[in-house]
Write a structure and sequence with these properties.
The complex is a heterodimer of chains A (238) and B (405).
Chain A lengths: L1 E14 L2 E14 L3 E5 L6 H8 L7 E6 L2 E2 L5 H11 E4 L11 H12 L3 H14 L15 H14 L4 E5 L7 H18 L2 E6 L2 H6 L2 E6 L2 E7 L4 H4 L4
Parallel strand pairs in A: 3-8, 3-9, 6-7, 7-8
Antiparallel strand pairs in A: 1-2, 1-4, 4-5, 9-10
Helix pairs in contact in A: 3-4, 3-5, 4-5, 5-6
Chain B lengths: L1 H5 L3 H39 L4 E5 L15 H7 L6 E15 L4 E9 L4 H7 L3 E4 L9 E5 H7 L6 E7 L5 E12 L4 H4 L2 E5 H8 L7 E6 L5 H11 L5 E5 H4 L1 H38 L2 H10 L3 H36 L2 E2 L8 E3 L2 E3 L2 E2 L5 H27 L3 H7 L1
Parallel strand pairs in B: 3-8, 5-7
Antiparallel strand pairs in B: 1-9, 1-10, 2-3, 2-6, 2-9, 4-7, 5-8, 6-7, 11-14, 12-13
Helix pairs in contact in B: 2-10, 2-12, 2-13, 10-13, 11-14, 12-13
The chains are: A alpha/beta (238), B alpha+beta (405).
């Protein structure tokens, strides 16, 4: 089932008189259950693409269909509702709420969804155990390591059982061992829960774990490689 | 969550709470002392003047003269029976005249009272520096102030002649003997005001009976509005005017109103300072959390909910500050209500304003409605101040907030 379809996506930023073309004519689709990495150098448009797919920003041109619904036409309120129920986010710098514990951070989205207490508690405890944070539920973000914080962020992203998890450079602030462990955990979640992951990174070790790698260069897709296909064969000539 | 957010920066929250609390406490003490001072002034004016409510001949307020007489004061006394909150009633004759001794003469105002009335006695008896207060039944005695005694060069036991227009508009005079000399320290009183008995005044003015004024004293100045309409309806058929103290002493009323306006201005300044304090804290706390708010919006928190969260933080800050300020304010009020604020050192002698003696010791008096009103104002100011940061936060664009802050 096609979960994401991007058609002729363009994004132009205006900085004073300067016009910056962040994305120009992106077309792609993601099937449900895919584990895809968007790679590319800094400024290639990875974060912009994820932000647009996640409904955090609006494109200059083009359409984004999420589970068949054109999100570029949605208002602020509907977008907010969509993000709450269908999309999970993992950010580069964890972005946990500092005054809440690990449990409360993971619980945050379920609270917004209005899930009853007992069900909520059971669900969050299961998730925290799944991401290897059992026993650390009551720790505040500043009492945890970067890896642990990012695991809380993953638990939070998965809490609402979203159709799609968007992770923007999730390993950028972690050491390589912790980063790879996090990606392994995400892969595991992808397998066991069937959640679709779209991860942006420029870490080649993360790319090695992916089943599909979309390479962005100057706001355009320069290659889109699935497992078994050769990256070199599909790369566009510079 | 709002509560936890508030305590992220404990020092800043505490400083803001103290600022708001001190503002509230200062406002409470200021209002308490202002109201207390005004009430003391009004009570002093009422005691020295013509009561909380004055009944006098029709037209006397506009054109006072010695020939305007209430001939049947018994009807008035009857009408005053059983009116709620009426504590005491005093029949009087008041007027102006010329007092002369062998050495000098001077224009004066006189008041004739029943010497047996404790309230009238309490006005000058405590200030006697020589001689005695008027005795019941006597007609030819007069109490004068020290300033007037010096001017007339008389002492206790000496004779003076009081001259003025009688009830039939003829010039009349009567001989009085100085029974006592008082000193209030207020030169307007000590050099101008004389006290005689009703019996003496009637002889002087050629009256068989009658009075010129009935002073009605109530439990407090706040009962005037309740008692006045009853009294007016009961005395409607008589040729008298029934006036509240505000109409009898318009200068005092104007002073109180003017002083109140000054107090409100002061209160306004305090509120502006409080508002700026809150704005600073909440705005700082919102600005430093821009990234976090962006992330929360990205996760699906609605802008409406974010707005409410910040308003709730502001409300919590206001409530905590009000508890602190209320405690401090009540403490200050209690101290000034019992011990008083002694301004003796700042006043060279007893002060008079708008014809009343101002006590150099001010006592705070806070009415429940005033406190309630003040708390509501502070609360609303706090809430209004929180609106801007709340609106600002709720209008954040998630991407901009996350990546640019």
């Amino acid at each position: 089932m096609e979960i994401v379809k991007v058609e002729n996506l363009r994004k132009i930023y205006h900085q004073d008189a300067l016009e910056i073309q962040a994305l120009s004519g992106i077309n792609l689709s993601l099937e449900s259950g895919e584990f895809t990495v968007v790679a590319g150098p800094s400024g290639s448009g990875k974060s912009t693409l994820l932000n647009l797919i996640g409904g955090l920003d609006r494109p200059t041109e083009g359409r984004i269909l999420l589970a068949g619904e054109d999100i570029t036409r949605l208002g602020k309120g509907r977008l907010s509702h969509l993000r709450l129920n269908k999309i999970g986010f993992v950010f580069q710098s964890y972005n946990l709420i500092p005054v809440l514990t690990a449990y409360e951070n993971a619980e945050f989205i379920l609270l917004l969804q209005g899930m009853p207490y007992q069900k909520r508690r059971q669900h969050v405890m299961e998730l925290l155990e799944e991401v290897g944070l059992k026993g650390l539920e009551n720790r505040r973000p500043y009492e945890m390591s970067g890896g642990q914080q990012q695991r809380v962020a993953v638990a939070r992203a998965l809490a609402s059982n979203p159709d799609l998890v968007l992770a923007d450079e999730p390993t950028a602030n972690l050491d390589s061992k912790t980063g790879l462990a996090l990606i392994d955990m995400m892969l595991d979640m992808n397998k066991t829960r069937g959640v679709t992951f779209l991860i942006s990174t420029h870490d080649t070790r993360v790319m090695d774990k992916a089943r599909r790698v979309i390479l962005l260069r100057d706001g355009q897709i320069s290659s889109d490689v699935r497992i078994g296909e050769s990256l070199a064969q599909n790369s566009a000539s510079p | 969550m709002a509560s936890r957010n508030l305590w992220r920066n404990v020092r800043r929250t505490l400083i803001t709470m103290v600022a708001i609390g001190l503002g509230l406490a200062l406002a409470m003490i200021s209002i308490g002392l202002g109201d207390g001072g005004h009430e003391q002034m009004i009570e002093s004016g009422v005691r020295m003047g013509a009561g909380h409510i004055t009944v006098q001949p029709l037209g006397y307020q506009k054109n006072p003269s010695n020939d305007k007489i209430i001939t049947d004061d018994a009807l008035i006394m009857e009408a005053l029976k059983d009116i709620p909150h009426v504590r005491e009633v005093s029949s009087r004759i008041v007027g102006k005249g010329l007092i002369s001794s062998a050495a000098n003469s001077s224009g004066i105002a006189f008041r004739a009272v029943d010497p047996g009335k404790a309230r009238d006695k309490s006005l000058l008896a405590p200030h006697l520096i020589s001689g005695d207060y008027l005795a019941v039944g006597e007609a030819g005695s007069i109490l004068i102030g020290e300033g007037l005694a010096q001017k007339l060069k008389v002492s206790v036991g000496k004779k003076v002649v009081l001259m003025g227009q009688d009830a039939s508009r003829e010039v009349s005079s009567a001989l009085f003997r100085v029974k006592g000399i008082y000193k209030t320290g207020v030169s307007d009183l000590d050099g101008y005001f004389c006290l005689i008995s009703l019996k003496g005044a009637r002889q002087f003015l050629g009256l068989e009976q009658g009075i010129t004024q009935v002073a009605v004293y109530l439990d407090s100045q706040f009962e005037v509005e309740k008692a006045l309409p009853i009294l007016r309806s009961r005395l409607g058929s008589l040729p008298v005017e029934v006036l509240p103290w505000q109409e009898v002493m318009p200068d005092l009323l104007r002073f109180v109103q003017l002083d109140d306006a000054g107090n409100y201005l002061f209160l306004g300044i305090i509120l502006v300072i409080v508002a700026l304090g809150i704005l600073n804290t909440i705005l700082m706390s919102v600005l430093e959390r821009t990234r976090e708010f962006g992330m929360m919006l990205a996760l699906g928190l609605s802008p409406h909910f974010l707005f409410l969260m910040i308003i709730f933080e502001t409300t919590l800050l206001a409530l905590l500050s009000m508890v602190l300020g209320g405690g401090l304010g009540f403490g200050g009020h209690h101290y000034f209500a019992t011990v008083g604020l002694d301004l003796t050192g700042l006043t060279p002698e007893r002060l008079t304003l708008a014809g009343t003696i101002i006590s150099p010791v001010l006592y705070s008096h806070l009415r429940l409605m005033r406190i309630f009103g003040l708390l509501i104002i502070i609360f609303l100011v706090t809430l209004t101040t929180g609106l801007y940061p709340a609106v600002k936060a709720s209008r954040l664009a998630p991407v901009k907030a996350i990546y640019q802050y």
